[in-house]
């Protein structure tokens, strides 16, 4: 099950530099680990910002929360979570998913 | 798995009154049905607005999307979805869930 | 009488760690107490944030205010209160409440 | 129990003028009636806008919702509800209410 | 002449506690004084926030400004001022004020 | 007593052209009249928008409201009113007004 | 080169149903085509909305613009484009990209 | 050439009081000077805020920028600049400026 | 003198197609003309939107306003104007402009 | 390939003045260098703010990100990136680019 997550990071200037480097290194290690486990499936840098846009594949919302909450840089993040599902116009969906006829949403 | 959903409804004035009543009736029937199935677990009216705040218990995000997309009034709704998980300070959680020590989020 | 409350918590980094742990522990105890008294009727964690969405059942607005104001973490919270009432499409309401015919709100 | 309500009215131009005058007249009659019953306790016009700021004294949120929902102009209103309670610095409160010591909210 | 004022207070955590108590006490005394003089005509606490909604009856905008500017907690407030006038649907207005026919504002 | 007013005008396309020209002409005549009476003391066009920024000198808020409400284009305006008062750093104020010492507002 | 694009679709209710179905079908065909060409690399449905979050791999901004502009549903979309680049904590980047030491962005 | 400028001032609490008084005094002197030179043509205090609304008459944007940038309190200001031009409904314009027929902006 | 202008265009669907094509053609001709006169000095398309970002070089604000107001598509535009001036770090400025020492703006 | 970038700079007051001057000087040198290389093609100061509006001509998004991330003042900037492409109404485009017929975007 997929979740789109934007993380805007702002590490306080007065954080001890060594502590910051430790946190950043642990964050990077954790990210690589979660990618290896097929959980952190997409991770992109937003151009011009200390932010990323990611997609997580998790069993449920509890797993996603614990995962985000455990990120070393979590205390310095603004996190926005958007639930995703399969889009009817994807190749994979082409075979399986027929979305109810598209009715014109409220305009 | 729980999702918090706010729905703000605005049915266009020029919708045929009979069609509107049909939609509203089908919406009510669908809501009652989903409550009976234990999916629509909470449904409250927001005071002073044609809006509701609901909580859904679903298997995954796909089920939630299809369910919302199939609501008769969906085309006239603005929908805001927030993923929920168990809070460590709930009675149930008291026995089971120990949230990692609370670190001060970014301030 | 029900109120929907979202609390976004941001404990300052420079708060003495022992004081923070005390506050968090007292907050948890207070939350469990109010749940036992049937006042704090719902408490969920918002995924990816140090925030909760709650529903309180209180006698009046004064009780809700005093309750929120007395939470140990109140000084570090951004609180959003939404008044709720029974929705005409709930099972309970099915028997009792007939909402005036739904007229199309302003679009 | 007091609620602060802001109502921003926007009657569609293409509403039949006679119907509009009827609605406005019924709205005025309803407002006068609710004032006589001590429910609509304050009603002011916001300068430069077809909006009002009001204070309602109601038994509970259900009564407030039904009252607002039943206003003839409700379908053409944007409504914002804020729950109020007694302020510790009011003359009346001076005798009765001692608010827990004011701790500095989150800054 | 009436003005609606919302004040959101946020006293910095690092303000000397004794100084804070002095300010809060002086603020309360000032509020009581202005209420006695019939200037601060309404003062309510916003539920769940260190905020108030007030109505002031003043001679002119200069008096309102000086009054707000002189409040002990003014340096720690976010203040929103809305000019009010008599609403044509109030009982008092019923006898005196006939608002020009209500034309449909821009929608 | 001075009020700063921003008016954003949006005349619907489907308004009968002759009616629009009549309204615009009456609006212009009314503006010139109010300027002659020293009430509409400043009127500037916002560059790139069908908007103006104005300053009105009125006796009280009621006069300002009636004046705005009576503008021919009022039904097609979004109006923002800001109460003004004399600034202590103006030449006129230099002689008369000594603002209480400037304390640092909340930062 | 990757771009993150959110598309919020709102097809007007008064669009001829046959025309709408044609547009939706052509949109789906175009999406499948671009996916086959490896340009539309990710396409997800946002839960509860007639919206998608996509990632495009294009040669340059001109190609992205022409592509979006040519989508059958483009006239009924609100489009938000975010430029992406490789994140230093991705597995691929692990070998190649060493981001300049992370300095604490403005807080 | 006229520019409308809103300045919201927030002097940090921890600024040395003597330095703050010096800055405020120099700001006042500068404002008086620019008024005498007919550059700072209007200066009003926004009621209830440490803010002013001003109108500057300058040769070009460079002059306005240098002037604002050189204000002693500039480092503690949030500045909003709006370009103004003559309104066709002003008395002066009545003789000179005939604005192209007013077409209904986008609604 | 330079002004940065963003124009978001939204031509109503129900505009007669021939009229729309005429307007678009006249808009294009006007844009080319103003570019030839060195007034419309930069014109870029915002990727994914019917919007442009432009820079105009004009004598004064009046000229800019008349120019924008006279654009054939002006009635269907949302226009945002930002006054620009020379930046001290430009090559040209390198020789001429020494900006007063940069003091830290309000943070 | 062009990108429009707005940078709002806010250097913390408590940054060592010498360090600030060093950063500002290095920022200026870097800006001049990138202008010489034809990468930083436009750089304007926003009137009344410690902000600039720039246009960069880069090979891809990665180059833009690294460039922005390496700016000495990046840690104290809020950066907004907008992808640009050639506008069909530019002189250059006049010869080459024929944009698909302009269909009325969603209104």
TrEMBL record, chains A, B, C, D, E, F, G, H, I, J:
Top-level taxon in the UniProt lineage: Bacteria
SUPFAM superfamilies to which the protein is assigned, alphabetical: Dimeric alpha+beta barrel
Ranges where the record places region Disordered: 87-107
Gene Ontology molecular functions: muconolactone delta-isomerase activity
Domain Muconolactone isomerase: start-end pairs: 1-89
The keyword Isomerase appears for this protein: yes
This protein's pathway: Aromatic compound metabolism; beta-ketoadipate pathway; 5-oxo-4,5-dihydro-2-furylacetate from catechol: step 3/3
Reactions that this protein is recorded to catalyse: (S)-muconolactone = (4,5-dihydro-5-oxofuran-2-yl)-acetate
Enzyme class: isomerase
Alphabetic keyword roster: Aromatic hydrocarbons catabolism, Isomerase
UniProt GO BP: beta-ketoadipate pathway
EC number: 5.3.3.4
InterPro entries from the UniProt entry: Dimeric_a/b-barrel, MLI_dom, Muconolactone_d_Isoase
Family: Belongs to the muconolactone Delta-isomerase family.
Subunit structure of this chain's protein: Homodecamer.
Name used for this protein in its record: muconolactone Delta-isomerase
Source organism (scientific name): Klenkia taihuensis
């Amino acid at each position: 099950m997929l979740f789109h997550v934007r993380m805007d990071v702002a590490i306080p200037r007065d954080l001890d530099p060594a502590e910051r480097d430790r946190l950043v290194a642990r964050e990077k290690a954790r990210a690589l680990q979660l990618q290896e486990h097929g959980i952190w499936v997409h991770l992109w840098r937003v151009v011009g910002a200390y932010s990323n846009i990611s997609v997580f594949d998790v069993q449920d919302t509890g797993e996603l929360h614990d995962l985000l909450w455990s990120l070393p840089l979590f205390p310095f993040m603004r996190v926005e979570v958007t639930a995703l599902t399969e889009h009817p116009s994807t190749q994979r969906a082409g075979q399986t998913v027929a979305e109810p006829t598209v009715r014109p949403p409220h305009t």
